[in-house]
Amino acid sequence: FNTPFTGGVTEMGGLIIADVSASIVTGTAILCAVLFAFFRYTRIGVAMQAASQNQLAAYYMGIPVKMIFSLIWAISAGVAAVAGILLAPVSLIDVTIGLLGLKAFSAAVLGGFGSIPGAVVGGLLIGVIEQFSGIYLPEGFKDVAAYVVILLVLFLRPQGLFGNIGRKRV
């Protein structure tokens, strides 16, 4: 799809960046900042975190857990819609677009579940690893690199880079 950013490029210190790519990165950064602020500084965001950690305790504290879960689904749909809008200028609708979700899952595993900054760092690392594996490794390794990273992270540090180890005393 054509956008106001289509066709333009920006050069910064020998690095050439397409304006459409810069707008996608900017839009994603804004969305992540809004989600981070929402979960950190609003009562509903904190209630969502409480309900995800312990539904029964959240219910006993007066949090309407069913409504919170419905709101979580609504926010998820909104984030997916924004992601689709951001992705539309650079990607075609394809039957293999679901593989992008698997790469997002690998970014979440690498960064640590429950950590928005971890997911961002994980996504950046997955992107860099894929690009370098496409350059320095034989043909076809670029497509497998994200899944190899998932396996390595699950073996070496199952909680991810920014995740916490949850332990319960019984």
What do you see in this structure?
The chain has 170 residues and is mainly α. The chain folds into two domains: 1-91; 94-170. It is built from seven helices and two strands, in the order ββααααααα. It has helices at residues 19-41, 43-53, 55-60, 65-87, 98-111, 116-136, 141-156, and strands at residues 9-12, 15-18. β1 and β2 form a beta hairpin. α1 crosses α2 (43-53), α5 runs parallel beside α7 (141-156) and α6 crosses α7 (141-156). The longest helix has 23 residues, at 19-41. The relative contact order is 0.08.
How is the secondary structure organized here?
Elements: E1 9-12, E2 15-18, H1 19-41, H2 43-53, H3 55-60, H4 65-87, H5 98-111, H6 116-136, H7 141-156
Antiparallel strand pairs: 1-2
Helix pairs in contact: 1-2, 1-4, 2-4, 5-6, 5-7, 6-7
* Average pLDDT for all residues: 84
Q: In angstroms, what separates the terminal alpha carbons?
A: 56 Å
What topology, given as strand order, has the largest sheet? 1-2
Structural class estimated from helices and strands:
mainly alpha
The total count of strands amounts to: 2
- The fraction of residues assigned to DSSP E strands is under 5%
Question: How big is the Rg?
Answer: 19 Å
The overall number of domains is 2
Helix content: 55-70%
Oligomer: single chain
